[in-house]
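Provenance

Sequences were taken from public entries as deposited. Structures were produced by running a predictor on each sequence independently, with no templates supplied. The record for Flagellar hook-associated protein 1 from Pseudoxanthobacter soli DSM 19599 is shown for reference.
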Amino acid sequence: MSLSLALNTAKSSMASVSAQISTSAKNISGATDATYSRKIAATTTTADGSVRYTTVRRAQDTALYNKMLGATSSAAEKDALLNGLDRLADTVGDTENEGSPASKIQALANTLTQYANLPSDQDRAASAVTAAKDLAATLNDATSTVTSVRQQADADMASSVENINDLLGQFQDLNNAVIRGTVAGADISTQLDQRDAVLAKISEELGVTTVTRGNNDMAIYTDSGVTLFETTARKVEFNQTTAYSPATVGNAVYIDGVQVTGAGASMPLQSGKLVGLATLRDEVAPTYQAQLDEVARGLIDTFQDGGADGLFTKTGSVTGVGLAGAIVVNAAVDPDQGGNPVLLRDGINTDYNPDDAASFSDRLFALTGALSATRTDYSAAAGIGTTGTLAGFASSSVGWLQNLRSDTTSSSQYQNTLLSNASEALSNVTGVNLDDEYALQLSLEQSYTASAKLMSVVQKMFDDLLSTV
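Predicted structure for Flagellar hook-associated protein 1:
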C-alpha cells in the first residue's frame, strides 16, 4: 500500500468513525423520547479498501408500527366509551343503591303497602307521596345525566375533529419535507420520526391505514377506506350541537364529503376515539334514555285515575323521548304545592271513597297490585325486553348498564394491554438501547484512535521521506 493510499484510508476511516460517533451520540440523546427511532450511520467500503460514510438510516419495522397504530385506535375507542359509561353508572347507581330507580320503585311500593295497612294515618299518606317525589326526581336527574353525557360527547367529537384537521396539516408539512429530502438525497430520518409521531396521534382519533409511495410519500386512509390524506389533507367536518335535549339528534362527521359516523354512514369508521364518542352519543345513551322513559311511562299509566293522570303526571307536552325528565308528582296530592296526600287513597279524578271512610283501603291495595303487576308493552327500543314488572324492568335497565360497563372495561383493559405490548415490541426493534450505544461508542473511539495513530505514522513517514530529498 502506498503512503498516499494509507493516508487517505486513515482519513476516510476517521471521517466515517466520526460520523458514527455523532450518530450514536444522537441516539443516546433521544433514548428517552418515545417517538425517536434508532439511527444507523451507513458506511461502504470503496475499491481502494477505505471505509466511507454514506447516509443515516433509521431502525424501523412497518408491520409492528402498523400493529401499534391499530392498537392505539382500538384502545382510544374503548376508553372514550368507558368514560361516558362511568358517568352514567356513578350517577344512577345500581339495583342495591338507594338512589337507583329500581330501589325508589321498591320504596314507593313499601310506603303504599304501609299506607294501605293503615289508611287512616295521614303521615303514611305523606310518606307515600314523598317516596313518589323521590322516584320522579331520580328519573329527572338520570335524564339530566344522560343528556349531559351526550352533550359532552358531542363537544368532544368537535374537539377531536379540530385536532384531526390540525394534525393533518402538520402531517402535510412533514410529508412534503420528507419528499424534498428524499429527492435531494438528504438525511430525512428526523422528519420520518416526526411524521410517524403525528400519524400515531391521528390514529388515536380514528383508525387509519397507510400506503407509502415513491420518494417516501405517504397516503393515509381511514380504516373504512375513506381518503384522509393523499398529497394534500382532506377536510374533516363536524357541526357541534351546543344545546341538547333528550330528543336531540347529533350531527355526523364527514371526511372529504363522505359521512363516516351515524346511521347514514356509507363508510363508517371502525375504531378510534371518534367511534367511541359517537357510539356513546348516538347508541348507548339514547338506549339508556329509552329505558328510563319506559319506566316513567309505566308509572304514569299504572297510577292513572279515572282515565287521567293520577299520582304521576308530566310537565310540558313530552310524550316520548325525555319523558323521564318530565315526570312529576301530581300537585293535587303534593302538600308542598297545596295538595292533599289523602287523595291518593280517595281518588284524584274519581271519588273512590264516597263515604269518606277513614279505613278505606281498596284503592291503595289496587295501586300496590298494579305497581307489582307484569306489563307486556315495554318498547323494544329499550333493548331489555318487553315484559316484566316496573321494578323488574328498572332493575334490568341498571343491569344492562352495569354489564355494558363491565364488558367495556374488560375490552378497554385488553386493548390497552395489546397497545402496551405492541409499543414495547416496536421499541425493542426501533428504540435505543443505552448499553449497546455506550459499547458502540467505546468501540468507535478505539477505531478512531487506531486510525489517528495510523495517520500519525504515515505522516511521520512522509516527513522522513521529504527530509531525505
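Residues 3-58+436-468 form one domain.
The CA atoms of residues 77 and 304 lie 44 Å apart.
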